């Protein structure tokens, strides 16, 4: 049964059923393929119903009219257009409605639908229609002869979580099923971890070989290696501790927890693998190193071969101190938020502890330097050293400039007006010693005063 617009009231309520927000691809299909046929108001009504409602919750038509700027006749016509094109089904019970949206057809299905294709060509013309066909063409590009230069997850991201974050993540946060498609991959070919050697070394132990070769467990082992710099021998010991002695099955959650605990007390001289470099990267690095002194080259090499925690621990030990848990947290936070390379973070640590001679690594200062280097696109230890030189030069130039004391207040003297009679004869008046005559006169006057006083006492 079809209801006319006169039977619609702004106070009527409605609910949405089984709809989900539109994807970008669906929005493009609606606006480019459906809108020329159903009109702007019908397309706007569909988008609003799809993107701005919760299912099974009551709404009023008057609110919809207000947002879309529609009257009852406009809404009625737009609703009919959506129903006719197959995008909407409407159900009514007294003054309550239920709207069920249907997903728009995929572009290929739309073009293969003879009725919709002819309607679209009639509205926009054949040239525009052909441009739409080209726009939605999903045929793959022929990449024959091209080299895959994509970086792996660990080449780009250097994850250094704090102990508090790790404990909360492993114990409190809910687990969700992750869709494998589009998941970042750890490329074994680009890793410095000798996987085959590691598996063979485990063959003499109780760990089940199939458990090691499990894709999920393998990804976990490679990730922990790349993230924390754990070599094959140490990884073997960790895997043995994290495996069930009865079944030989590896518990990857237990393995991760063991690594996190060891990471907090990792030896200061532990080395991490140098990041994967292509031939072009190595050539660029060699070119940058040409202008460095021998000491600077040694610093670059140390920054590339050590994790930030190990690097900072080594520097603090050379200064006779030790790295605190708070400093570890600061280093992890700066590394995670700035996404600077590990070698750049190490130069930053050297700048704070050695160049600036600070006793500790403080969060505000470290974040300020890391933020500036990130904005200046510092990509390597050599570039970081150049930033340090630049900062030192700017500081020296500032120190050479004369400083003005902006905090000294000018002194003011209050002057009271002096009457003219007090000013006369006062100019150039100086204290002068008494003459002999004046001294005798003063002594005679004092003598008379004493005699006069004695006479009064005798009466």
Automatic annotation (TrEMBL):
Biased composition (Polar residues): 402-414
Compositionally biased intervals (Basic and acidic residues): 389-400, 442-459
Region (Disordered): 389-459
Domain DnaB/C C-terminal residue range list: 315-387
Domain Replicative helicase loading/DNA remodeling protein DnaB N-terminal winged helix, first and last residues per copy: 9-249
Species whose genome carries this gene: Atopococcus tabaci
Superkingdom in the source lineage: Bacteria
Protein name as it appears in the record: DnaD domain protein
Family: Belongs to the DnaB/DnaD family.
TM regions (residue ranges): none
């Amino acid at each position: 049964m079809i209801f006319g617009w006169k039977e619609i009231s702004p106070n009527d309520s409605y609910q949405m059923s089984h709809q989900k927000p539109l994807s970008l691809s669906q929005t493009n299909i609606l606006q480019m393929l459906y809108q020329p046929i159903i009109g702007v108001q019908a397309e706007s009504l569909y988008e609003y119903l799809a993107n701005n409602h919760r299912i099974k919750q009551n709404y009023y038509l008057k609110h919809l009219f207000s947002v879309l700027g529609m009257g009852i006749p406009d809404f009625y016509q737009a609703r009919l257009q959506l129903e006719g094109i197959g995008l909407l089904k409407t159900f009514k019970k007294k003054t309550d409605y239920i709207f069920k949206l249907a997903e728009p057809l995929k572009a290929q299905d739309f073009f293969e639908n003879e009725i919709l294709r002819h309607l679209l060509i009639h509205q926009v013309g054949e040239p525009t229609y052909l441009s739409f066909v080209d726009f939605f063409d999903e045929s793959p590009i022929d990449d024959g002869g091209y080299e895959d230069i994509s970086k792996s997850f660990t080449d780009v991201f250097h994850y250094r979580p704090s102990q508090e974050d790790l404990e909360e993540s492993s114990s409190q946060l809910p687990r969700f099923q992750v869709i494998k498609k589009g998941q970042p991959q750890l490329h074994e070919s680009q890793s410095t971890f000798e996987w085959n050697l590691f598996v063979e070394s485990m063959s003499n132990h109780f760990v089940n070989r199939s458990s090691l070769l499990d894709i999920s467990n393998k990804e976990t082992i490679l990730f922990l290696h790349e993230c924390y710099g754990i070599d094959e021998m140490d990884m073997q010991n960790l895997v043995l501790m994290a495996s069930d002695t009865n079944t030989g099955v590896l518990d990857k959650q237990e393995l991760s927890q063991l690594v996190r605990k060891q990471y907090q007390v990792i030896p200061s001289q532990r080395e991490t693998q140098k990041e994967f470099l292509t031939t072009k990267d190595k050539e660029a690095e060699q070119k940058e190193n040409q202008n460095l002194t021998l000491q600077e080259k040694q610093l670059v090499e140390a920054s590339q071969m050590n994790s930030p925690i190990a690097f900072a621990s080594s520097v603090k030990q050379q200064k006779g101190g030790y790295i605190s848990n708070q400093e570890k947290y600061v280093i992890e936070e700066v590394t995670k938020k700035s996404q600077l390379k590990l070698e750049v973070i190490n130069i930053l640590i050297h700048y704070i502890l050695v160049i600036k001679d600070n006793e500790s690594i403080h969060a505000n200062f470290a974040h300020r330097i890391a933020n500036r280097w990130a904005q200046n696109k510092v990509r390597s230890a050599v570039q970081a050293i150049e930033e340090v030189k630049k900062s030192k030069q700017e500081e020296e130039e500032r120190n050479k400039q004369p400083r003005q004391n902006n905090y000294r207040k000018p002194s003011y003297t209050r002057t009271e007006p002096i009457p003219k009679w007090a000013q006369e004869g006062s100019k150039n008046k100086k204290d002068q010693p008494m003459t002999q005559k004046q001294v005798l006169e003063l002594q005679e006057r004092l003598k008379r005063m004493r005699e006069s006083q004695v006479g009064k006492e005798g009466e």
